[in-house]
Every structure is written in structure tokens, then in C-alpha cells.
Amino acid sequence: MGPTGGSTSGVNALAASCTSRCFWRQPGRRHVPEGARPATLGGRRGVLKDATSYGLASGANDYLYWANHTRFLWRENGVDYVASLHRFGTKKETRALLGRLIRELRPAKALR
User: Fold this and answer.
1) How far is 77 from 28, CA to CA, in rounded Å?
2) The whole model's pTM is what?
3) Residue 69 lies in a domain
4) Rounded to whole angstroms, how far apart are CA atoms 101 and 69?
5) Which of 30, 58, 67, 71 has its CA 20 to 30 A from that of 86?
């Protein structure tokens, strides 16, 4: 049951569809947002790009990611990862929450 008492099967199917189609990116340097800088978040070293807009559009070469999201890209065990979080509050607050979310990540098989 979902939080409002309804079925979650449609939500889960949509999430699976979006995860595999909407947000998957080819790995590689060309997919790092322009202006990203080295950073450590959640104990992982990578590159960070703060949100450049409160809206979706940006002139800062952000076409691969939502411009209103702070993005963190890292490589772990030979796999490229991107975590993004919608901008809220200050840059410091957004980075702190994104770092906490990244720190709490667990492999899916460990959640069973």
C-alpha cells in the first residue's frame, strides 16, 4: 500500500521505467557538467556541480541534467554514478543533504 492507502504497483512500474530510460547516462568525461569541480560528498570523491537555475533551463551546458539540481558524479568499483538533488535552501544545505543521501547508499542486494 502507498502512503495514501492506494496500490504502489503503478508507481513502482513508473519508477523502474524512468530509472532505466529517463535518467541513465553514458559514462565518460563528456557527460560531466561544465564547471563541475572536485569534491567529496558522503565520503566519496568525485565532482560537484551546484544547481545553476531555479528552473529547468540553463545556459551553462547543463543539457544532460536538470539545471535546478545539484549534481555529484563519482566512480566506484569501475562503475560511474550520478546523484542529483533538487535545489532548496542554500547551496550549503543542498550539498549537506545530498552528501547524507550518498553516505547512506547501499547495494540493492543488501536491502533484501
Assistant:
1) 15
2) 0.68
3) yes
4) 14
5) 30
